[in-house]
Amino acid sequence: MSAAAAASAEATPSTEATPSRDALLGRKVHVKVPATSANLGPGFDTLGLALARYDELEVEVVGSGLEIEVHGVGEGEVPLDDSHLVVRAMAHTFARHGRALPPIRLVAHNSIPHGRGLGSSGAAIVAGVMAAKGLLEPEVEISPDGLLELATELEGHPDNVAPALFGGLTIAWVTPDGPRHKKLMVHRGVSPLVLVPEHEMSTALARSLQPQSVPHEDAVFNVSRSALLVAALIQSPELLLAATEDKLHQSYRAEAMPETDRLIRRLREAGHPAVISGAGPSILVLASDPSERADAARLVEETADTAWQALPLAVDFLGATVTPADGP
Ligand code: HSE
């Protein structure tokens, strides 16, 4: 659905095809959503990579109330009411189809770290949109562009939600008719390593450090590197070090995450293509093979002042899935 059509749908929602609350009762779905790393160095708000670490949840339409259980990451921390991000995304998707969110029971098993630049909020939003899609089927069909639009409306930028929805390497861009994406397969040699510190970083704070304008030569620098990065990731991993250079965001954010900045410099001096993962503070190393990945993890273990968790993660090529779940 286009932005204009979505706005119009909000004003006069059509319930023609949307299943009634009675028809929804008892429907139950299972949703699985990958972690993501956005930006990948030069591709600010544009490039993203899906990684094989997942949040999973089951949602069932019940007779009354709202029941939420969270296990794993976020347990005891995230709200268990209608402000829960998955529930908000579900309600947003139902509203676009002219219905209030019915009573649900939601059980989440999370393993994507929160506040670390691995797309946990994007994953929660995508989980909610996909859960709603699964419950509304088969009466309602939501197109891939429609899913991306719903998720981007809540996330604000498409570079995490696109790979979370579709998997692989995604290029996302915004048009007057809404966000769009192109999915690409990554060269099989690319071996991502994510290094996760104990502390969190607020995306809002990171974004507040961005300048309103940048020198034209810096913009040209990033255009060249982000174009090269697509080629390096799908075809020529030996170019990844040059292709992950950036002048648009990382230096502006460095003061808010000094250890991330210092470790990225050390890794890059040693020849490893290291960048801030999303808005940080985690580091993504786009190693060219598993032995380089091990070298990079060792370097961080030996030189970091604080504890960093090393996660060697495969690229996820499937993206988010929703399937009917068995009854209670
Ligand atoms: N592109 C976004 C940013 C990703 O760097 O702010 C984090 O949500």
TrEMBL record:
Subcellular location: Cytoplasm
GO cellular component: cytoplasm
Residues of the GHMP kinase N-terminal domain: 85-168
EC number: 2.7.1.39
Enzyme kind, highest EC tier: transferase
Gene Ontology biological process terms, A to Z: threonine biosynthetic process
InterPro entries reported for this sequence: GHMP_kinase_C_dom, GHMP_kinase_C_sf, GHMP_kinase_N_dom, GHMP_knse_ATP-bd_CS, Homoserine_kinase, Ribosomal_Su5_D2-typ_SF, Ribsml_uS5_D2-typ_fold_subgr
GO molecular function: ATP binding; homoserine kinase activity
Pfam (any one): GHMP_kinases_N
Signal peptide residue numbers: none
Keywords: Amino-acid biosynthesis, ATP-binding, Cytoplasm, Kinase, Nucleotide-binding, Threonine biosynthesis, Transferase
Sites where the protein binds ATP: 113-123
Reactions catalysed: L-homoserine + ATP = O-phospho-L-homoserine + ADP + H(+)
Taxonomic superkingdom: Bacteria
Disordered: region residues: 1-21
Pathway note: Amino-acid biosynthesis; L-threonine biosynthesis; L-threonine from L-aspartate: step 4/5
Described function: Catalyzes the ATP-dependent phosphorylation of L-homoserine to L-homoserine phosphate.
Family (UniProt): Belongs to the GHMP kinase family. Homoserine kinase subfamily.
Protein name listed in UniProt: Homoserine kinase
Gene responsible for this protein: thrB
